[in-house]
Structures are given as C-alpha cells and as structure tokens.
Amino acid sequence: MRKRKFRDIELSQLGFGLMRLPVLDGDESKIDVHEADRMLHEAFDAGVNYFDTAWPYHSGRSENFAGAFLKKSGLRDRLYLATKLPCWLCESYEDFDRYLSMQLERLGTDHIDFYLLHAMDGQRLTKMIELGFGRFLDEAKRDGRIRYAGFSFHDDYSAFEDVLHSYDFDFCQIQFNYMDEEFQAGLRGLKKAAAMGLGVMIMEPLKGGQLAKKPEGDLKELWDSFDTDETPAELGLRWVLDHPEVTVTLSGMSSPEQISENLRPAQSAGPGELTDRERGRIEELRNLYSERTAVPCTGCKYCIDCPRGIPIASIFKYWNEARRYGIVDSARKRYRANIKPENRADQCIECGNCEAHCPQKIPVIEMLKQAHEFLNADS
Fold first, then answer.
1. Does residue 219 carry a pLDDT above 90?
2. Are 12 and 47 in contact (CB under 8 A)?
3. pTM of the prediction?
4. Which of 81, 207, 242, 260, by CA, is between 20 and 30 Å from 370?
C-alpha cells in the first residue's frame, strides 16, 4: 500500500469508510458482523491504516461495530481512527463533551486520532461558533481525547472558505471525484486547504459507487472502445490519487470484491501518474454522465428519517441508473417490486426534512415528483 505523509505520520492513501458495510436482510442497522470483520482484516492486512466512521452511520451502529472490531482484533494501536461530532444534535457547549464521551465509549478507546465536525456548512458554522466549538476542540486536543481536529464539508465554496478560516484545523474532508471538480469545495478547495497545510481526506471518490459500475446499454459501447482491463472504479480512483494535494481517499466498501478492486490502484497509482489516454477516457465518460444524470444524489442516506418511510436514496438510484445506463424497464420493475405503494415517491408530504439534511442541496421534494412520474410510467 502506498502511503502519503501527514505531519509526522504516514497514512495509507486508501481509507476504509464504515458507512456502507454489508448488512443482513437489507436492514442498514443490521451490520453483517462476520463479513464486515473479515473485510476490515483484509484491508488492514493489505496496508490500509485509516478507518473512518461517524455517529449516524448504519443507523447509529457503525461506531459500536468499529469498537467491537478493535477490541477483538487488538489493532487499535496499529491504525488511525476517525469519527465525527454530530453537530446537528449539539444544542449547548456541554453537548460537545457529552457526545465525544459517548463516542469514546462506543469505540472502546481513550482517544480518537482524527475527529471531525460532521457535515459542516455555512449555517451550521454560525451555530458551532455560538456554542464555542473552538474552545472545545482546544480542550479535547490538550487532554488527549483527540489528536487532530478537522471538519467534513457539504456546501458551496464560499462557505468552505468561512469554515476553513474559523479555526486552526489540522485537516478537512471534502467530496471530490471526476464529476465534481467544481462542486462544493471542489478542486479549488482541495488546493486551498493543502496550501494552508491541512491534510485533505476525500469522500465520495466514486460518487457513492455511481462511477464504479461498468456502463450498460449504449454506454457499454463507449467503455468497450477503451479496450482496457481497468475497471471504472480503478479509473475513478486513479484520477483522485493523481492529485498530490490528496492525503487519504476514503471508500465505503461493501464487499471483498470491492476491496480487491480498490486496492489495485491504491497499491500502484500515485500523483502525476495518470496517463493521457486515461485522462481522455475520463473526459468522454464525464461528458456522457453529465448528459444523462437525473439527480446528483450520492446515496449518503442522510435523508433516511423520512416520516413517510420513503427510501429517497433508492428511488433516486433507480432513476439515475435508468437514465445513465439505459435500463429503464429494469429500474421501473425494481421500483414497483422493492418499494411498497405507501412508501413510494408520490407519498411525500413535503415536510422538507430531507432537504434540510441533504449534503448535495438537492431539491428533493420536486425531484421525488419527477422520479415517481418516470419510474411509475408504463414501459
């Protein structure tokens, strides 16, 4: 595994995001512990030493799973652990300490190596400043409960600058992939943070897995014309790893096959090594995906608490797959077979809860109407 320098330590350039672990019965809260344990061991044995979790992942079960894994494996002192403060739940200064204490207990550790303010944006920054987040981070670093302080980010570039200058952060985590160079912090934010001396962790390098699938339908002709053994996931990761400003590229892996696929570029690719031919392939793919994307959903599932039980991310996934890959009949069949009538997109009551939590700032209510019209139509 190729490493990248951060301060006085070396981090694996591929990190394991514990937000898309294998589950039982399709239930996000039921992590398949046996399979997930095996996957984490496989990744660690291959050189991955950065593992990232968060309070809400897997309906609040991810941190507990990580803690149990660390206890069973005895690997705590041999890897770097990252988790995030659930800022949206904090209503007082005391809440900062309360949630950190609970997270330390969940994780079964006395310190967190990389601690982030989760899902920061302009509005949330104002609240965090009012509550005194800077003093909290200073105290937590001073007493050893956290080693490095950072933030993950979902907003426009101007808000990124505001967050960046609000505290002497050690690192940040931004969304970055070949479809999102100008989205949120984007390439400009990556370069800005790195120039300020921050480590930059990348999330959604494959846009929630959307850039990892081999194109079907008429897009298959384009990929076949590339005449390469490289997979879409490998190409997408190589593009991110080509940037020297990147410290760790996180991937939420769900199967041993995905680990193996992601390890190949992580073990062989580095900054400045992307070929002109690969750049040309990416440009062709970028153009076609841009034309066909219905809604820029990454499947992060921050919208999971819909009062009507509407599986928003799944619905947008079906819609996007139909548009991008030409599998319209299949998408419509899955929509009708997998989602009960009472949970379909037309049952939205327009409460706005999903839009308030969407990192991508998608107009979810309107998009659900369009998605239902498309997916519920006769083929």
1. no
2. yes
3. 0.83
4. 207
